[in-house]
Amino acid sequence: MKTRIMLGTLIMAAVIGSSVGVGYAGGGGVGTAGGVAFFRCYEIENGASSRLQLSVADDFNDSLKVSIGMARRLCTPANADTFPVAGQFSLVDPKKVDQITCYDLPPSKPSNEVVTLLDPLVGSQTVLLGPPTSVCIQSLCTGATDPCAP
User: Fold this and answer.
1) CB neighbour list of residue 143: distance below 8 Å, 6 or more residues apart
2) pLDDT value, residue 61
3) Residue 138 CB neighbour total at 10 angstroms
4) What are phi and psi of 36, to 5 degrees?
């Protein structure tokens, strides 16, 4: 289970990392916190399984060899702001972000959108999107032995 969670996080980080330019495009307006991008993540109801295996390593664990399971979440760039008072964000230097932090969302209705995804692990797959389950934002990791350097 821990391996699947780590793998899901790795895949999400890769998808989000490939979209980093989205966070800087707005220059700190609505949808960003000083240029740091937001993402909303949806459950995938009928994701494809990959036949690939990966060797995965990060700053918190040694290399693990894992088999890829089913696609579980789709994270998409999102506009977000605080309310009722806008702009109540903590300051983070957008040039130094090196991680993704995700927060749970309360239960809501499924999206019921059918989308086709193309990724390096399974190629093309058509999926049904369930409810949004989390919101994620780029973050800066500090305080570890090696300050979370990639």
Assistant:
1) none
2) 86
3) 23
4) -90, 130
Q: What is the dihedral of CA 91, 35, 89, 5, to 10 degrees?
A: -100
Q: What is the pLDDT of residues 74-84, one digit of tens each?
A: 999 998 888 88
Please give the structure tokens belonging to residue 86.
């806008």
Which long-range contacts (C-beta less than 8 Å, at least 24 apart) are formed by 102-110? 102/12, 102/41, 102/134, 102/135, 102/136, 103/134, 103/135, 103/136, 103/137, 104/133, 104/134, 105/40, 105/132, 105/133, 105/134, 105/135, 107/131, 108/132, 110/43, 110/45
Token code pair at residue 34 = 């000083």
Q: Which regions of the chain are under pLDDT 70?
A: 1-34, 144-150
